[in-house]
Amino acid sequence: MTKSAQTITVLAAALLLGASAASALEIKSGSDKVQLQLSGEINRAVMYADDGHQSKVFHVDNSNSESRVGLSGEVSASDCLTVGSNIELKWQDNPSHAVSMQEESIGGEFVQELVELYFDRNNFGKLSVGFGGMASDGSSEVDLSGTDLIGNAGVADVGGGFFFYDAKADNYHENGTTVSDVFKRHCCDLFNRITADGLGKRNRLRYDTPEFAGFSIAVAAGEQESYDVALNYSGEFNGWQMEAMAAWMQPGGGGDQDCGHGDYTQMNASVSVLFDFGLNLTAGYGHREVDVLPADGEDPEFVYGKIGYKFGQLFSVGATAVSVDYGVYENSDNQLIGEKGTATGIQLVQELSDYSTELYAAWRNFSLEDNTGADYEDISILIAGARFSF
């Protein structure tokens, strides 16, 4: 084990020990001026998958919101300046985006999710430095449905590792085409993390403007000469809410070779509306402008939509949210010219508000077509689990 890996593991163990003792001991900083807060979650599920050729049951960690633990520290240096930091580590044993019929047991390890320092000054904005979200992170996944825990525009977060089976050839595609190959709507980040959105999380310098009339702007410059910019909006009108985000990005580092494309730029956007009586509508879009395409290739893009309803008083234990969604993802994989993938899903989330817990269940179907003459079987997934947050 490398020295850096040992350091992360020791730090993670300390955070987990702190979590187990949080109810009995007050968390204190070495400085009386600093306020510390421990947070985290455990998110586990049972998943059944059928690829048209075989089926299996998996015990997974839900990649829509991975199990993690974090520690934040903050000090108000003056009436107008706040200085703080965030350290967050995730642990996934059998990630739901990575397991497959060929590999159903994947050991977990601690991976950094946030290691950043920030300066937040009233009327001047927030400057963040370190490992964290680029400006475009989350630009495709704005979602007020209450079911994004188990279904959102990042459809490959559950089932991304499964291979499509070609019934005509009676084998899996010779190039090993997976769900995440077809349904990616982002660039892979430096850790090839398929659950990322936009440019994901990197070592970067990021600036967020103050909010004005619900709008704010974020810009970031990351390692390997990557950079992006995003426009955010959040507002409320007569009891109904609206959130939206649009981002433009350039990945740097010679492009996204591991994801099947070279140099490119990309635009992502999403919007979600929650009406006061519970109905909600969500939409997402992304388009990648690729500099060099293969013969007969086309630029990748996706369109995603969701309609849902939140019941505030259906059960006394907490809010209930249900939704259905549908997405079309085209030309994401250069190995399949003219490919088109569709994803359909149904989601249910039940809050247990007195227990800081959410129960969830979902069904997802993936379908793939291309111009090679293959006859791909659909991949169907059922998943049910729970998330406990602290």
Features of the shown structure:
390 residues; mainly beta; 16-stranded antiparallel barrel; two-stranded antiparallel ribbon; 2 helices; 6% helix; 50% strand
State the separation between the terminal residues, measured CA to CA: 30 Å
User: Structurally, how many domains make up the residues?
Assistant: 1
CATH C-level class is: Mainly Beta
What is the correct CATH architecture?
Beta Barrel
Q: How many strands, which pairing sense, and closed or not: the largest β-sheet?
A: 16 strands, antiparallel, barrel
Category by helix and strand content: mainly beta
Within CATH, the superfamily carries the name Porin
- Listing every helix as H and every strand as E from the N terminus to the C terminus, the arrangement reads HEEEEEEEEHEEEEEEEEEEE
Residue-averaged pLDDT: 86
Rg, alpha carbons: 21 Å
Q: Percent range for helical residues?
A: under 10%
Q: Strands of the biggest beta sheet: in what spatial order?
A: 1-3-4-5-6-9-10-11-12-13-14-15-16-17-18-19
What would the principal axes of the Cα set say about the shape? globular
Q: DSSP strand (E) fraction?
A: over 45%
Low-pLDDT ranges:
17-25, 185-196, 254-261
Number of strands: 19
* CATH topology category name: Porin
Count of alpha/pi helices: 2
